[in-house]
């Protein structure tokens, strides 16, 4: 037989991805072979080192990377400037979320549930009430493990985080739709599981996991059918091959646009855009808060990185045909997020609706198939991710005896009790609303001006109105914190441990820096376009 | 027989699966409907591979199968864990999270 | 020539010998612990009685766990068949790739084994 020439691999370019996925494999082995009490420190050290090393490798490579990017691994990965920027974004946001996940001081033992073995032994202990039919999970499923022991957590969340992070990195770099699909699943499956691991409110958390899983699998089936149709159209799933096939051809447009529609539904679902958002509030509320932070920040980056690449590389030439539909989607997303956000009484749900509105704004940037649109989207993702992580970090600090106090009424008068926390939260909410001197303003400005220059003026008007409506519900929280009477049985503000402090500080500092001096990062984001 | 018929069948199966997801109430059945959708995709991938005369579609079907298996395991584990705490796998009973 | 068929014949002989060996060796080296479950009509899985499964009955969780593990490890084989067919032309690169693939699955297997996923009770 004729020997096959192996595809050339540019190891330097894909090194960050390999490091993260390799560390994920090692951390599975750590889970397998280390005794229980050593797992948490080992996993934290391993994950932090892996992310830092991957970041340094990325920085070294990005220093003298070719401006037009490289396509490697048999044309399945495109490591171009947007990819490098998104990888950097994912790594720093992943680092921030990892700190929140690893924290064990706010909630004794961490926000994630103890391992099943300990819970089972605690459930069988005398004194626990198990009715014959009405099984009360709070009693059987003792959330802190065996009584008397120091609380532990399920350290599997660390390999989950690393695998999800690796999947996201592969997702934004994928140069063909099959790689994109596999990466989509690699990032989704750990996230489904992380949702169901909350220590408190087990049923709520498990319910969120089931919903996220069923809807996520439904969406990825749509994505896949889109891939099949596009393969039928172009005879290849490479993004550039689809673009070539679409130019001057007599092939059936039904396959091309049917495929695009199904594909984009799957991607918009992941980005929690518009009418495909139904999972978002439930999952944000039910999942353990650190996992929510990870999901909200990093999944958004991954999803919109992929949407931008697909639209830019594969469908840039046919943009006049599909843009009308996406206009409707963007408007729906902004309106749904802003209006339904007004009616929320739970803080985590409110942030979820805010993320839906933000997804609409982001879609504006991705629809503008221009250099400015790409760089605006990239900048927006970085800014939004940091603010979100800090917001969820703050939410995890305000607690009552039975867990986090996420109901809005519980936040009344919080400024009197903890001025610092209320001040930081106010700053972050203003950033989400897009007030000048915060990263939110710079990001919105970049995206809206890109959309405006690409002929989407009516959409920008809608976006501005939606921003104004959304600003109202952010300000409502601020007013509640500063100008309301403190309820008698109000929540307490925990003193954050080192990890949470670092994560929140990181988020706040970056939010401020990107608002005051965004030039450097804007330059990075605009360093080059997608290659296909 | 024209390969187009397979595409029609695949579209039909995909639709049946999608409708099933929307109307059925048992998490396991919903899940089976999703699997039906994935397998409908496999059918069209293989058919397109035949129409286009390239092998890529068949290879993709392998990947879809493997990913679907991983998804099955994760999904069943999640459904099992909720079943063990609440003794029901109906998606209607999962109603703690609301607007 | 007969060459390709010869390999097939060896394969068949090997398979037959392995089956014969397993069946004859099992009674001698396997442990024998009879219990009620062994005498049931289905040795594993849901008990075939009219007992209600939901409500008062218990779920045989171990059965589902094993089934899920089986699905996972079984389906990964799908990539080994194409490799086996094309192993010659893929050369060293293919060998390294498939080794990495198997090692990755091996990690998961170690996890499974160390955390007691392979124990029935």
Would you kindly provide a written description of the structure presented here, covering whatever features stand out?
Chain A: Residues 123-134 have a biased composition (Low complexity). Chain A: One of its GO terms (cellular component) is endomembrane system. Chain A: It is a multi-pass membrane protein. Chain A: Belongs to the complex I subunit 2 family. Chain A: One of its GO terms (molecular function) is quinone binding. Chain B: Belongs to the complex I subunit 4L family. The complex is a heterotrimer of chains A (532), B (99) and C (121). Chain A is mainly alpha-helical. Chain A is built from 21 helices and five strands. Chain A has one domain (11-121, 139-525). In chain A, the strands form two sheets. Chain A has a three-stranded antiparallel β-sheet, with no helix packed on it. In chain A, strands 1-2 form a two-stranded antiparallel ribbon. In chain A, helix 3 (81-102) runs parallel beside helix 15 (371-395), helix 8 (202-234) packs across helix 11 (279-286) and helix 12 packs antiparallel against helix 15 (371-395). The longest helix of chain A has 33 residues, at 202-234. Chain A is globular, with a radius of gyration of 23 Å. The two termini of chain A are 32 Å apart. By secondary structure, chain B is mainly α. Chain B has one domain: Orthogonal Bundle (Helix Hairpins). Helix content of chain B is 78%, strand content 0%. Chain B contains three helices and no strands. In chain B, helix 1 (4-23) packs antiparallel against helix 2. Chain B starts with a helix and ends in a 13-residue tail after the last helix. Chain C is mainly alpha-helical and 121 residues long. Chain C has a domain at 56-121. Chain C is 64% helix and 0% strand. The termini of chain C are far apart. The chains are: A mainly alpha (532), B mainly alpha (99), C mainly alpha (121). Chains in contact: A-B, A-C, B-C.
């Amino acid at each position: 037989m004729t020997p096959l020439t192996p595809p050339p691999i540019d190891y330097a370019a894909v090194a960050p991805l390999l490091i993260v996925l390799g560390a994920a494999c090692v951390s599975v082995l750590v889970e397998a072979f280390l005794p229980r009490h050593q797992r948490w420190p080992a996993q934290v050290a391993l994950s932090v080192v892996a992310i830092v090393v991957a970041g340094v490798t990325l920085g070294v490579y990005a220093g003298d990377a070719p401006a037009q990017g490289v396509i490697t691994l048999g044309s399945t990965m495109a490591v171009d400037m947007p990819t490098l920027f998104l990888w950097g974004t994912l790594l720093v946001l992943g680092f921030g979320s990892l700190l929140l996940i690893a924290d064990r001081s706010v909630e004794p033992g961490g926000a994630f549930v103890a391992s099943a073995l300990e819970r089972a032994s605690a459930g069988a202990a005398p004194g626990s009430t198990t009715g014959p039919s009405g099984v009360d999970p709070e009693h059987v499923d003792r959330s802190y493990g065996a009584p008397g022991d120091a609380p532990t957590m399920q350290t599997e969340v660390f390999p989950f985080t690393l695998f999800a992070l690796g999947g996201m990195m592969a997702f934004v770099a994928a140069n063909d739709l099959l790689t994109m699909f596999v990466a989509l699943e690699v990032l989704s499956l750990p996230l489904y599981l992380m949702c169901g691991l909350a220590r408190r409110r087990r049923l709520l958390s498990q319910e969120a996991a089931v919903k996220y899983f069923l809807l996520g699998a439904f969406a990825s089936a749509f994505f896949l059918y889109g891939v099949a149709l596009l393969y039928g159209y172009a005879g290849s799933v490479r993004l550039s091959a689809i673009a070539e096939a679409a130019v001057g051809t007599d092939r059936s447009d039904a396959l091309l646009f049917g495929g695009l529609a199904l594909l984009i539904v799957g991607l918009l679902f992941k980005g929690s855009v518009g009418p495909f958002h139904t999972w978002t509030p439930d999952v944000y509320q039910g999942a353990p808060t650190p996992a929510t932070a990870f999901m909200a920040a990093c999944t958004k980056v991954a999803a919109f990185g992929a949407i931008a690449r697909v639209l830019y590389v594969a469908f840039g030439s046919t943009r006049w045909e599909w843009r009308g539909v996406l206009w409707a989607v963007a408007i729906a997303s902004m309106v749904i997020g802003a209006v339904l956000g007004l009616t929320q009484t739970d803080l985590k749900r409110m942030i979820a609706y805010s993320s839906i509105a933000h997804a609409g704004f982001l879609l504006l940037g991705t629809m503008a198939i221009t250099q400015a649109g790409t760089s605006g989207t990239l900048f927006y993702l970085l800014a939004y991710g940091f603010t979100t992580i800090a917001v969820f970090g703050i939410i995890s600090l305000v607690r009552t005896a039975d867990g986090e106090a996420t109901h809005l009424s519980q936040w009344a008068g919080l400024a009197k009790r903890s001025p610092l926390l209320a001040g930081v939260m106010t700053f972050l909410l203003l950033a989400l609303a897009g007030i000048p001197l915060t990263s939110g303003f710079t990001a919105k400005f970049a995206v809206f001006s890109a959309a405006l220059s690409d002929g989407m003026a009516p959409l920008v008007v809608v976006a501005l109105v939606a921003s104004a409506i959304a600003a109202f519900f952010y300000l409502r929280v601020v007013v509640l914190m500063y100008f309301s009477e403190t309820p008698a049985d109000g929540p307490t503000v925990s003193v954050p441990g080192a990890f949470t402090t670092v994560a929140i500080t990181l988020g706040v500092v970056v939010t401020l820096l990107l608002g005051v001096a965004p030039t450097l990062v804007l330059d990075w984001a605009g360093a080059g376009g997608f290659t296909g | 027989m024209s390969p187009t018929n397979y595409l029609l069948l695949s579209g039909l199966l995909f639709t049946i699966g999608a409708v099933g997801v929307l109307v059925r109430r048992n998490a396991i059945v919903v899940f089976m409907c999703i699997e039906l959708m994935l397998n409908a995709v496999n059918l069209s991938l293989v058919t397109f591979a035949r129409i286009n005369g390239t092998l890529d579609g068949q290879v993709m079907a392998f990947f879809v199968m493997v990913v679907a298996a991983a998804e099955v395991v994760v999904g069943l584990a999640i459904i099992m864990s909720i079943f063990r705490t609440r003794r029901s796998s109906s998606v209607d009973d999962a109603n703690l999270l609301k607007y | 020539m007969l060459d390709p068929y010869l390999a097939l014949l060896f394969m068949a002989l090997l398979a037959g010998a392995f089956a014969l060996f397993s069946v004859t060796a099992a009674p001698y080296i396997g442990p024998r612990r009879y219990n009620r479950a062994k005498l049931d009509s289905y040795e594993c899985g849901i008990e075939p009685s009219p007992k209600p499964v939901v409500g008062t009955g218990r779920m045989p969780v171990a059965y589902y766990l094993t089934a899920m593990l089986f699905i996972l490890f079984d389906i990964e084989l799908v990539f080994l068949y194409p490799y086996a067919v094309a192993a010659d032309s893929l050369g060293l690169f293919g060998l390294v790739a498939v080794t990495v693939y198997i090692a990755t699955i091996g990690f998961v297997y170690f996890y499974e084994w160390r955390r007691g996923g392979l124990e029935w009770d």
